[in-house]
Design a protein that fits this description.
Elements: H1 4-18, E1 30-31, E2 41-44, E3 50-57, H2 64-77, E4 82-90, E5 96-106, E6 109-120, E7 128-137, H3 138-141, H4 145-153
Antiparallel strand pairs: 1-2, 2-3, 3-7, 4-5, 5-6, 6-7
Length: 156
């Protein structure tokens, strides 16, 4: 068998696979062609709720407990958010993570902010942390949280 076709096709297949969005967004949400910094992918609802995806280095190889405390401290102590709930989450592919749900108010409007994170080490790579963050007005986003959570569980 000639290995040349595989040599030519392998980079193309890898490029195509890497173009695939990391999650399946909630029904009715669209992917922004130019996501806001720092997100690699960002989705928006018609009512302007947002779901963003990004990957950051996990240089110290922090575990779920470390990242729970770190994110909770950053948001509650430094930004005035209130932690509403914390729970374990697992993707359909079996990645274990945590979900934290926060509330805050600004200029008389209540907001919710959900963050889910998954420590992982890619093949031939250094430790990373996948972050999915959703936010929006509480009255609009709270009824959609089940759909947002389903999108998070679809992380590939």
């Amino acid at each position: 068998m000639n290995a040349r076709p595989l040599t030519v096709l392998a980079p193309l297949l890898l490029a195509l696979a890497s173009c695939r969005a990391p999650v399946s967004p909630p029904a009715g949400w669209i992917e922004l062609s130019v996501p806001a910094f720092p997100y690699e992918y960002q989705y928006v609802s018609a009512d302007d709720s947002r779901l963003g995806y990004r990957v950051v280095p996990n240089d110290g190889e922090g575990d779920l407990g470390f990242w729970c405390r770190s994110i909770q401290n950053q948001l509650t102590l430094n930004r005035g958010y209130e932690l509403v709930s914390m729970s374990d989450v697992e993707t359909e592919g079996g990645m274990a993570g945590k979900e934290l749900l926060f509330r805050t108010s600004a200029k008389g409007v209540d907001y919710v902010y959900l963050v889910a994170f998954f420590p992982f080490t890619p093949f031939l790579g250094s430790p990373k942390l996948a972050l999915l963050e959703a936010g929006g007005e509480r009255s609009i986003l709270e009824p959609e949280l089940d759909a947002v959570r389903a999108a998070i569980r679809s992380l590939r």
